[in-house]
């Protein structure tokens, strides 16, 4: 997970991964100790221009380009002073935020440990833990301009179950966003194919000026993931943000 002001343009010398020639395709054979699925994963990684660009430009994951591309389209990072990164590991989104908003306070949380990044603070904790939200709020030390969520539940292989579990995280992130966002703020969250559930989408449209779904080019076409972006927070009744 884990540019410039108005639209988050390229930093000096960055090559747009979409313009990178893929070159000869690398084929990976199934070795004695390598399953067919792991061989496919490795082959996909070796032939992914976003993976190559992330390695070359120092991003911790190819997911950094998803945030770059969405910011290029919607410009939500411009002027942000406080940003929350839910599901922060390995830190690619926080790297982008720190790059685009060098003076911003960035706080993140993940079940996994995140290697330190200048300008960001991370908590290793389940976001659904009882004290997680209060600990994030204490680190923020003021209203947030943006709440980012790249959280996804561990997949079970059952599409309906995976969708329900991930949408529960999206909803939890939304309630947290309603608690911490400043007026005009943005909530951006990963969802799965099918988009945001009807009731949650209705609530978002009531409390944000615009709500849209987007699948950035860096999101693999075969993936069921997409993102919902809610901009222009109007405020919400914290006892009933629905």
UniProtKB/TrEMBL annotation:
Q: In what ranges is there compositional bias, type Gly residues?
A: 1-10
What is its EC class? transferase
Q: Would I find rRNA-binding among this entry's keywords?
A: no
Under the heading InterPro entries, the entry gives: RNA_methyltr_RlmE, RNA_MeTrfase_FtsJ_dom, rRNA-MeTfrase_E, SAM-dependent_MTases_sf
Give the residue ranges for region: Disordered: 1-39
Q: What does this protein do?
A: Specifically methylates the uridine in position 2552 of 23S rRNA at the 2'-O position of the ribose in the fully assembled 50S ribosomal subunit.
What residues form the catalytic site here? 190 (proton acceptor)
Example GO molecular function? rRNA (uridine-2'-O-)-methyltransferase activity
What is the name of this protein?
Answer: Ribosomal RNA large subunit methyltransferase E
Keyword DNA damage applies: no
Q: Where is the composition biased (Basic residues)?
A: 24-35
Record EC number: 2.1.1.166
Subcellular location, in the record's words?
Cytoplasm
Gene name?
rlmE
Which family does the entry's similarity section mention?
A: Belongs to the class I-like SAM-binding methyltransferase superfamily. RNA methyltransferase RlmE family.
Quote the record's binding site residues for S-adenosyl-L-methionine.
91, 93, 110, 126, 150
Q: Which organism is it from?
A: Govanella unica
